Predict the 3D structure of the following.
Amino acid sequence: MRFILRGTEVDLEPDDVRRAIDGLAPEPIRKYWVRIGPWRYPPKQVLEAALKGKGYEVTRVGFTTSDAFSILKKLGFELGEGR
């Protein structure tokens, strides 16, 4: 899927996301989560890892939780709210 994230053109697929978080320990959930396999992760943690895995120089301070939530939803991941 191609999209623009804060001025950067990004090409990201669901398998890119899964590879990026393989072996990555989930950080504590604050409000929103994304399920990948049996684990729930903060959306910003996942998107940042996926972007870094593809070589993009965008850190989580460069996008909002809403950005991450929307992108991961469009990629087909289950998202929710609550701890």
Remarks:
- The first strand starts at residue 2 and ends at 5.
